[in-house]
Amino acid sequence: MYLTQQSLLRERLHARLLELYPQLDPSTFAAILKVEQPPESKFGDYALPLAFELARALRKAPRKIAEEIVAALAVHPIPGFAAFEVAGAGYINARLDRAAFVRDFVKRRMYWKQGLAYILVEHTSINPNKAAHVGHLRNAILGDTFVRLLEAQGFLVGVQNYIDNTGVQVADIVVALQHLEGLNLAAVQSLMQRLAAEGQRIDFYCWDLYARVSQWYEADPEQKTARRQLRLDTLHAIEHGGNDSAAIGDLIATAVLRRHLETMLRLGIEYDFLPRESEILHLHFWEEAFELMKAKGVLYFETEGKNKGCWVMTRPGTSRTGEPLRATDDTSPATESAAPDEDAKVIVRSNGTVTYVGKDIAYHLWKFGLLEKDFKYKKFFQYPPSTKFEDGRECWISAVESSEFRPRFGKAEAIYNVIDARQSDPQANVIEALRGMGYTEQAARYTHFSYEMVALTPRCALDLGYQVPEEDLTRPYIEVSGRKGFGVKADDLIDKLIDATQSEVASRHPELPEEEQAQTARQIAVGALRYFMLKYTRNTVIAFDFKDALSFEGETGPYLQYAAVRTRSIFRKADMTPDEALSALAALPADRIAPFLSGEDAEAIWAVWLRAGKTALLLEQCIQTAEPAYLAKHAFQLAQDFSNFYRRHHILTEEDAAKKTLLLATAAVAQRELIRSLAWLGIDAPEVM
């Protein structure tokens, strides 16, 4: 990335502070070099509160410190800055050389930043037992957007979608097929053929079936225990393999997985590799991880208390029963040294089954290249051609038998796992296991990219045809539940958004061919959905609402897209390209531009340039904080600044040639940075709206 004004300002300020205050610890300065945005440009383009931070250490008034810093900056000017002023009790306001900034920004080109060699991002990870729903979309959109941000900054990124095809949710579908529907393996195969012939979707069929079996477990109190045991027996049969239950589970999970990939492709979301839990079991990843964890002293065998007979994980700073066992005899008693740690995390249950956390630890040891074992691979899904993959991306899946070509999907230098906040404890356990085994660097580069749930507004639930109790109509949101069958399927949601947009596009542009109308409707609908999921910070519960998402006003995807469409209209009418407009401005000397960048009339122009100049900084901020919402907010503010500029200035009828050149270049730079930001958010900018 190019060096932004903010970065240059911090760099030069750091040098001045070292000279002015050598008595202070140099590390003090790095933390206080914050660059803020004043509420109005009349207060400056940037505001620096560092004098307040230094006041206690220097035992001086903040304003006095600010005056010293401004005086030092007068002796050592910073390129691109016109002035520094002391304001209020000690703020330092910085003013850019506007004409120099504009001419420099026109010529800027982003270049790749050297980063970690290979980053793995795992996202989506839907249980392959029913259709994807609206909550899954937040995970997938967040993960896909973060991949785009990393790639925009030059990182090599691998995209993985973990498939729990041997878990309890798949077992529930198998129980439903075998015991509610009375189907054997051959009958299930016939069912799937019939559904395909009738154009019915297997993931939709399983949606209703999953709700039925969930209720069936609890329906008869006298049968509850037996039915729960049936569920557990089916789960163990699937994990073991080589039986009809396992074959049915694999058949259903694979078919539903393919539908999930097709659903996500509608939103522009693709994957490189689909690691399945079945291969983690059958390729004996856990066995190797188990021996490694024992050898590293992370596990011990509990001989007392509620976890008696279990292998549990050592917790830092706590007493435990026995020293870690390094022998391979799992039944050997540990040496008793203290009372049992009742809160220790169980990794292997007393019946010998491995917990979810145990399998996840093994999986992440593989991700970091810390296991000698590797998956076997086969091609599973072919994506259509794209700008990034001319022949289409190939999606691989883990397999029992290996292909001739062995792609590289493990040995990552950093990992981001997009998993909802309810899984914080298991994620923390994996990190703690890595740290306990001595893999501290890997633990530091393991990020749980957490997020809160997606619910529905009562209005949205009514729009979807659900009966909402009167007491729920005043609630801010209603939680979805797959077990109860309450929620909105992802494809139904996308279809409904497209349908709502299709009629609007057709009425506005009847002259367009139907295919172009349909494409524009898809772009607007997907943009609305993706932006709605991205504009909230990750720790915010989202209450989804159709009307809010599709509005052309306010903070919505269509509003941003409309701003980009408006810039395209300008250049069609001007009969020139945005690049030509920027080249024309670059040819003008700074003194021809400067008069139109000062005064009240120029503030709307300058606001666009100043905001556009922050795009690269926002990209870095989003990656550093793992928060795409900052870029979504930036894009919205840029669209607002452009709309304000567009209302105030008559671009195409401006008579002064130099000013018209500046106005056209302002529209061009707004388009460039807005479309770039939208692309990083996974949103297309339509030609018309």
Automatic annotation (TrEMBL):
Q: Where is this region: Disordered?
A: 313-339
Pfam families in the record: Arg_tRNA_synt_N, DALR_1, tRNA-synt_1d
Indicate the segments forming the Arginyl tRNA synthetase N-terminal domain, all copies: 3-96
Q: Which UniProt keywords apply?
A: Aminoacyl-tRNA synthetase, ATP-binding, Ligase, Nucleotide-binding, Protein biosynthesis
Domain named DALR anticodon binding is located at 560-689
GO CC entries: cytoplasm
For this protein, what is the EC number?
6.1.1.19
Family annotation (SUPFAM superfamilies): Anticodon-binding domain of a subclass of class I aminoacyl-tRNA synthetases (SSF47323), Arginyl-tRNA synthetase (ArgRS), N-terminal 'additional' domain (SSF55190), Nucleotidylyl transferase (SSF52374)
Reactions catalysed according to its record = tRNA(Arg) + L-arginine + ATP = L-arginyl-tRNA(Arg) + AMP + diphosphate
GO annotation (BP), single = arginyl-tRNA aminoacylation
* Signal peptide start and end residues: none
Give the highest taxon in the source lineage: Bacteria
Molecular-function annotations in GO = arginine-tRNA ligase activity; ATP binding
Concerning PANTHER family, the annotation shows: ARGININE--TRNA LIGASE, CYTOPLASMIC, ARGINYL-TRNA SYNTHETASE
**Can you tell me which family this protein belongs to?**
Belongs to the class-I aminoacyl-tRNA synthetase family.
Its protein name is arginine--tRNA ligase
Species per Swiss-Prot/TrEMBL record: Acidobacterium capsulatum (strain ATCC 51196 / DSM 11244 / BCRC 80197 / JCM 7670 / NBRC 15755 / NCIMB 13165 / 161)
Per the UniProt record, the lineage of the source organism begins with: Bacteria, Pseudomonadati, Acidobacteriota, Terriglobia, Terriglobales
